[in-house]
């Protein structure tokens, strides 16, 4: 909505806006691109105009969408999902991502999954086995090992630390 409002203020015809991407009705001039960049920068957005950077952003947005917003999406093979979504061979996507980001798609995917696990642990609405199932881990043990490898903490210890730092609402 924020991006849509800015595009409306600039009187730019937009075909479609979705996470990380704006499709315009007409080709933009360099002056319009500069204006958009100036309008979006203070809001925490940046204009990405080169093809490789757009592909990287699409990879990241697809992974974020899968991990944080679509429980069923994690049941599919990540390489197939990315290839289908971005219409490129996975090897090309993987090599490009590693070249630009300095890490692999798999590591980025794991880091997103671990962030989601942290979030779900803090919410305290699901058991660890329910979290493992939701994020398509083969077992709680595998989730725990991966969590500890990434964070240095076990999931239960992480949860304990976060609970000790949280204040009851009546003490705020």
Automatic annotation (TrEMBL):
Protein name per Swiss-Prot or TrEMBL: HTH araC/xylS-type domain-containing protein
One Pfam family linked to the record: HTH_18
Key words, A-Z: DNA-binding, Transcription, Transcription regulation
InterPro entries assigned: Homeodomain-like_sf, HTH_AraC, HTH_AraC-typ_CS
Organism: Flavobacterium palustre
UniProt domain HTH araC/xylS-type: residue ranges: 80-161
